[in-house]
Amino acid sequence: MRTTVLLHRSDEPAALVDAELDALRPDEVLVRVEATGLCHTDLVTLAGLRGAPAVLGHEGCGLVERVGEAVTDLVPGDRVVISFRFCGRCAQCDAGHPAYCEHAAHLNSSGRRPDGTPTVTVDGQPVFASFFGQSSFASHAIAPAQSCVRVAADVPAHVAAPLGCGFLTGAGAVLNTLAPTAGDRLLVVGAGGVGAAAAATALAVGVEVVVIDPMEQRRALAQSLGATAYAGLEDQLPSITHALDTTGRADVIAATLKRLSPRGVLALVGLGKVLGEIDLRDVMLRGLQLRGCVEGDAVPAVTIPRLVALYREGLLPLDRLVATFTLDEFDAALKAQRDGVAAKVVLLPPA
């Protein structure tokens, strides 16, 4: 079918173009995209493609329009959040940790289906797509039914979309990896979309939160949610039992470890340089834990409904973290996110 996609080339401005979607496979669904989050991973991937044309986007939410012949748990008209792709068969998937699927890199970042076939062509030529099993910077996206999580129709699409990755990562890191409880104090370093979602989730479950971010707008948002906020780790901080780093910076990670109380836990969700220095003696003598965390170590079909329930109960104000732009305002949306005007930017179909 014909559709409209936001086509990227790293050496050219993004542009809306007409494209052709491939026919559905039996296990796939066609989703009319209502909203899609903008994530740092999209930008990192774009830079790595070295000018090759690509349709990115991996936090889609929309209405199912068609289903493949083998799909039995979704029907046209269902609203779904599209999350990351996983095989469902490897040891990690079987153990309930699909974010660590042994085939994750190929399934989510190859630009094709697992069998190598393309999902999107432009002017008759295949382009990099099927990103995280979706490529939702588009009016329509093909996605594996397995990656789609049904959400209630009364949850706004622009609120639900980031639950596919960014909000899932921050919130999941709190709920699934760090698991602080009342009486603990969580330090969140970096209050962009992932960090803001982590802070909001921790507050929703009764945990005290301290946020570090150099941007005044982000600190103000964190404070309005109920967190204490500082510009840097050099400020005098209270005792910290749990911490989340979203920056991926080795110097920040090392400094954050120093701020932890004995037996404290630090989870890492940001990608930065491969190598860095930490004080191993301090980690050992104070019984600290350093944890990696991908996609909030979440099972999307479990964690997304939990977050939606908190939102519907008025405990998790995800709507306050979001600013919306249309797909054809991509450059302005990107600037707003980089400038800290919004914790999370979500793109909507063009008017």
Automatic annotation (TrEMBL):
The keyword Metal-binding applies. It comes from the Bacteria. GO terms for molecular function: oxidoreductase activity; zinc ion binding. Its cofactor is Zn(2+). InterPro entries: ADH-like_C, ADH-like_N, ADH_Zn_CS, ER, GroES-like_sf, NAD(P)-bd_dom_sf. SMART domains: PKS_ER (SM00829). Residues 9-347 form the Enoyl reductase (ER) domain. Belongs to the zinc-containing alcohol dehydrogenase family. PANTHER family: NAD-DEPENDENT ALCOHOL DEHYDROGENASE, S-NITROSOMYCOTHIOL REDUCTASE MSCR. This is Alcohol dehydrogenase catalytic domain-containing protein. It comes from Mumia zhuanghuii.
